Q: What sequence folds into this?
């Protein structure tokens, strides 16, 4: 059980860090330099979407960390939150791998890292989710 506990906390911390990191992505990768500045509504819409996504990912991951003992114990609700996060990361991994891979231009290393890390995080969370599900069924 200890290895699943480590995987649980590692995956939720990584998910939370992605949420935190995403607040700074537009500036780091100079998103606005690719957009015509006369489309201010488009820029604001992208910002709103990115910031809301970042806050939701950060917050739900943080809650999963705070509720870690409950999720690894008997709390059905805490497990459900982790399952939801798992579904988010499976969806993200499927987007990156099968549906619409991130273009390698203009920053190839960022695209490759996103693909590898989102797939790795999704697999890790699936492994933990299966263990949590089996724990729930035994009781």
A:
């Amino acid at each position: 059980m200890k290895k699943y506990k480590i995987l649980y906390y590692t995956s939720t911390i990584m998910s939370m860090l992605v949420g935190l990191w995403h607040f700074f992505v537009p500036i780091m990768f100079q998103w606005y330099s690719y957009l015509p500045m006369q489309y201010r509504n488009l820029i604001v819409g992208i910002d709103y979407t990115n910031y809301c996504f970042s806050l939701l990912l950060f917050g739900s991951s943080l809650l999963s960390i705070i509720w870690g003992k409950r999720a690894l114990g008997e709390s059905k609700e805490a497990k459900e939150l982790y399952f939801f996060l798992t579904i988010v990361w499976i969806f993200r991994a499927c987007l990156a791998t099968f549906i619409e891979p991130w273009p390698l231009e203009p920053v190839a290393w960022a695209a490759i890292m996103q693909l590898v890390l989102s797939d790795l995080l999704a697999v890790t969370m699936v492994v933990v989710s299966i263990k949590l599900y089996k724990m729930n069924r035994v009781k």
